[in-house]
UniProtKB/TrEMBL annotation:
Organism of derivation: Diphasiastrum complanatum
Lineage: Eukaryota, Viridiplantae, Streptophyta, Embryophyta, Tracheophyta
Taxonomic superkingdom: Eukaryota
Protein name: Uncharacterized protein
Amino acid sequence: MTCSYLYTGHWWSLDKFPPATPLLFYKNGKPLFPLLNLRDGLEMVLKHMIAYIEKSVPVHALKLWRTQSPRHFHGGDWNQNGSCLFNNLLTDQQVETWFEPKNRGVNREVREINQIVKDALRGTSFQLFDVTHISEFRADAHPAIWLGRKDAHIMWGQDCLHWCLPGLPDTWVDILAAIILDMSNHKMSERHWK
């Protein structure tokens, strides 16, 4: 069995590059003008990348796209005094307030980007490996409050993107293993019935 694993993440945040400082996208080695906004640029990149992989990777290969893992800034973004000093799971209401794009929450970009990815993958042979929603509840699993000192976040800053507690990344691995085993078992049963 062959596995391909692709991921695009927080660098594609639709708010990260303001219109005054746009990214420059290239096609066939030449810059594209007029300049694309970040959303259109991401859609173009995904379209070309997915088409290349669909053409180049064997049909029987397992192609997974892991959705973005969320960050948990509260009270502002990373550069606006946001923090993630939480030691409890978020409630359903908190998750929707923080992540639902309609609510304009600080962490909404994860769902915005994931929707663009889901739209780009529609009709392809990629399987979505969605870790986002289960991870949105785990504001408590970032290193921010687990650095050994109560004032560690003041000394070293907030890390509301990476994960340090066991549990959540282990759950991702369990889901990934189940996907791989399911595909492997499916392929074995196909061979058995031929």
